[in-house]
Amino acid sequence: MITVQNISKSFGEVQAVKDVSLVAEDGQITALLGANGAGKTTSMRMIYALITPETGVVTVDGINSTENPIAARGRMGVLPDARGIYKRLTARENMAYFGRLQGMSEADIKTRSEELIARLGMEKFADRQTDGFSQGQRVKVAIARAIIHDPQNILLDEPTNGLDVMSTRAIRAFLRDEKARGKCILFSSHVMQEVSAVCDVITVVDAGIIRATGTEQELLAMTDENNLEDAFVNLVTQGEVK
Ligand SMILES: Nc1ncnc2c1ncn2[C@@H]1O[C@H](COP(=O)(O)OP(=O)(O)OP(=O)(O)O)[C@@H](O)[C@H]1O
Predict the structure, then answer these.
(1) Which contiguous run of DSSP H or E holds residue 107?
(2) 38 Cβ inside 6 Å of ligand 1
(3) Distance between CA atoms of 52 and 30, rounded to whole angstroms?
(4) What confidence tier does 241 reach under pLDDT thresholds 50, 70, 90?
(5) N or C: which end of the chain has fewer CB within 10 A?
(6) CB of 37 closer than 6 angstroms to any ligand 1 atom
(7) Alpha-carbon separation of residue 162 from 7, 111, 133, 191 (angstroms)
(8) pTM, two decimal places
(9) Could you say which architecture CATH assigns to the domain 1-75+152-242?
(10) What number is the ipTM of this complex?
């Protein structure tokens, strides 16, 4: 479970994130939904303890991630916006390398790699060097590598960006399975269809500020709209001259 209380971050004049709060529960898929530049990546980077918030607190399974970033990171598997897999290594070697960094035994790495290769449909390319992999293949390797240690909390920054329908579906199905296993899943997206398809709770962020949080039905009721896209536009244009 991840709790975020009033985190903020500026870059010079730009207030990228302002007083963002949210709770991502176990056994649920939570979305951070926002347009380009809304502050999703900056929020995610603070949540996974890559950058330190200027204000506020993040806890991961009760661990304060500023005070104890190493313990907090150990409870998370992160698919960052820059996927950066090792090109000279095969998919399986990328996974094994991360498993060793997480202190796993070689036997556990082998078993878990086999499981993830099967569940993510990576059999055909698991033993090829990743140089030249398609976007979908790279994302699958990056997800498998991030969660090799079977963390309780799974954080993904725009996981299906640039993927075709089959790869998108495979990743959605995988996330639903992880949710059924009781995992806490938090992902950022700007794609309404994506969020609508898999998320239990949606937090709408705009210009670094949380505009609303709720289920899709709750957001529709709040805005008196009948689809998520219109509800989103309604929420982010509130207070603006239309
Ligand atoms: N390292 C940085 N230096 C300066 N400005 C930054 C930096 N990182 C983010 N910003 C600014 O902070 C704001 C929020 O950016 P962020 O990347 O968090 O948005 P986002 O919601 O992830 O957008 P996108 O969907 O386009 O990736 C933007 O105005 C961006 O230009």
Answers:
(1) helix 106-119
(2) yes
(3) 22
(4) very low
(5) C
(6) yes
(7) 29, 30, 13, 11
(8) 0.92
(9) 3-Layer(aba) Sandwich (3.40)
(10) 0.95
